[in-house]
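Chapter summary example: a protein plus pyridoxal-5'-phosphate.
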Amino acid sequence: MNLFNSRQDNPGLQEILAANLTRTRERISRALEKSSEPDRSVTLVAVSKKQPLEKILILAEHGQIHFGENYVQEALDKMGEIGQSGLKWHFIGGLQTNKAKYVAGKFSLVHSVDTLKLAQGLHKKAKSLDMVQHILIQVNLAEETQKYGVWENNLPSLARSILEFQHLKLDGLMVMPPFTDNAENSRPLFARARRLKYDLEQSLGIGMAHLSMGMSQDLEVAVEEGATLVRVGTSLLGSRADRTLSSAS
Ligand SMILES: *Cc1c(COP(=O)(O)O)cnc(C)c1O
């Protein structure tokens, strides 16, 4: 992407990010080898929320294509500044229904659909644009009251309703386990997510390509348990509050 070459004004940051990207890709491929389906592809989504544009551009220059954002305005600002680029944007944050119209059509994949109203909002906008918006349903498997995501008992009916929307395409599920300092603690939840996706595919008679799970701390466990999309922020782009990494912008 020659487009970005003019931005190479911080060699230290370049080296750090290039090394992080290599290490993250290696972590994914090692875990993939250990998993039961080592031939599938796992897509690395670089979570760039609250990170400066410069880091996105550097990673893009090193071949990173998929970027994840959590905040609508921040994401749209970044897209606007970068312009046509071939990058693929993922919306991974909690999304209010009234902002669905700003998201549909702008993101390759929305990971965080968790209510029928939100799905309706995305569908309405996608229809007006005459396009199909790809989405995942975020499932709150641990039933943490303060977190986004549909609870398991409401998943089948939400999924069924979404299948009625011709301008939405249900590509799979997204989960985010409760915080823990030991990634192994999340393994049972990742395994459950995989079974849940399988059960849903059987009961709805459809195939779904994606299971979005795994972040900086636990991506190996998630990939071993079947993730096809991992969402990696800090271990790839550095701490979101880290001034040494973000000062250059
Ligand atoms: C911030 C965020 C991530 C990335 O988290 P890290 O721990 O920085 O890798 C992944 N998924 C979601 C939904 C997030 O909000």
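Key point: The chain has a mean pLDDT of 93.
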